[in-house]
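Progress against Task 2.4 (sequence-to-structure conversion) is shown through the following example record, which the project officer requested during the mid-term review.
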Amino acid sequence: MERLKLSDIALGADDAKIEVENASSEKNNFFREYYFESVVSQIDRFYLGQKYIVRGFKGAGKTALLRYLSIEYKEMYGDVVEFILFKSKIRESDRKNMSVTAGMQFAETEGVSVFEQNFEDIWVWFIHTKIYSIIKNDKLLFLNDESFKKYFDFMESFSDPNVGGASSISNLILKDGTVKLKANFSVFSVEWAQNYGFDPKSGKMPIDKIADLATSLLKKCKIADRKIFLFFDELEVHYASEEMYRRDCRLIRDLILSISFLNEEFKEANISIRLMCALRDEVLSSVVLFGGEVNKIVADRGVRVRWDSPVRHQDQPIVKMIEKRFMVSEKHYLGCVKNNDIWTTYFPAKIEGQKPINYILDMCNFRPRDVVRLLSLIAEIHPNIDNIEDNHFRQIKKEFSNLTWDEMTQDLLVSYSPNEVEFIKSVLLNLPRKLEAKNLAERFEGRAISSPEGSSIIKKKKSWMGVLEDLYRSGILGNEYFVKKEKKNRWMFRGDDVLDKTLPVAIHRSLRSSLSIV
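C-alpha cells generated for the chain above:
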C-alpha cells in the first residue's frame, strides 16, 4: 500500500494568513485545490457583493475563506485584491489619534448622558486612500475620462506623498478633524469652498466633507473590466482597559458601518469595488452593545462559517475537509489518489477507545484550526511516519490541551483582563468532570472573596452565572447530562446558543489535561 509521509500531507497552518501570504502562484493554487468550502453555496454571492461579512468562532476558518476568495479572484479573474489588518496594521498610536480626531459627543439616552464617538468619516476617508493607492499603481482599472481625472487629481492633492501607501492612518488626518491639501493646489477650490467647507488660506477641509466629496467623485467614475477587493481582517478587541475596550468597539462598529455604506454606494453607482471583512462572534457580541445597526447589517450581509451539521459523523463537513486534504496531497505527490478511505489507511482503528472520526470531532470543537493543530503536533514529532498510531495522540495530548486553552481564552480577553482570565483558570483547575452550574458559580463566589480580580469581575458582570455564560460562548464550558441512560450534551459550537443553567456543566474534553481534570 502506497502512502504519504505525514510531513507531505497538506495539513495547513494555524493561521491561513501565514500559509498563503506572499506565497508563490504554485503554492496558492495548491491551497485552492485542497481548501474545503464550508459555505460553498455563498461563494458567488461574495463575488457579486450580495454578502460581504464573514463571521464565526475563532479558528472556524474566516481568514482562510477570505484568503481563498482573494486567490480565486486574483488568479481566476485577474482582479486586484488587498488586505487591511486591523490588529497588526492599525497601531495603538493610530487608534489614539483617531480617537482625538473623532472628538467627544454626549447623547441623551433615557435621561442619561452617554459618551459617544463617531469614526465613520475617518474610515470612509481611509478606505478612499487605499483605493487611491491601488489605482495610482494601475490606472487602467478605470476608464480614463474626465470623471476619473477629477477623482484622481482630488486624491493626489493631499500633502502626504505616501497617502494610502506606507504612511499610517495617523498621517492622513490632522488632530483638529481636517485634512490638509497642497498649498498650491487650486483646481476646484472655489467649488470646494462653497459646498464642502474648504479653507483656501489654510488648505484644510473638514473630514466629514472630504469623505463625502471623495465618495461623490468616485461614484461618477467608470471601472474597467476588473474588480477591486479590499479585505479587512483581524477585527479584534482586547480588554487592556475599559477606555481602550470601548474605543476599539466603536472603531470596529464604525468600520462595519462604513464598509456597508460604501458597498451600497458603489453598488448604486455600478462600480465594481467590493469591501469585505471577517468578524469573530465574540467581538460582534461586544460591538453590537455600542449601538448602530451592526446586527442588522450582519444579519443581511453576513455569512457565518460553521462546521456542525445534523448529519452522521462521517458526513460532517469538517470530516470531509480532512479527507480532501489527504486525498489532494496524494494526488499532488503520488500522481493520483491512492487511498479513498484515509481513516483505515492513515489512522488507527481506535484512539483512546473511540473511532478516529469521533475522537477528532470530540477533541476539536468542530473547528478547522484545532484539527490542524492536533495533526500538526504529531507531524512535528513524527514527520516520517505514514501511519498515525493511538500513542501518537497520547504523546501530544498535554501540549494540544494547553494550546487549545490559549486559543479559547482569546475570546475571554475581549471582555476580561489577562489577570482576570488567570483568576478564572485558577477556579477551573481540578474541577470534577461534571457538576451543577450553581455549584460552579458558588465556587467562583468563594474564591473571589480574597481575590482583587474576582472582585473586578463581579463588578463588571454582576453575577457569576454571567461568567459561566461567557465560558459557554467561548467553548470552554458546556452541558453534559443523561436522558434514560443515554449521554447528551449541549455546546455552543454544535449550535446550542444558550447555556442551560438547570443542567449539569462540564469543561470541554480538549481542556481537561491543561486544567488537571481527570
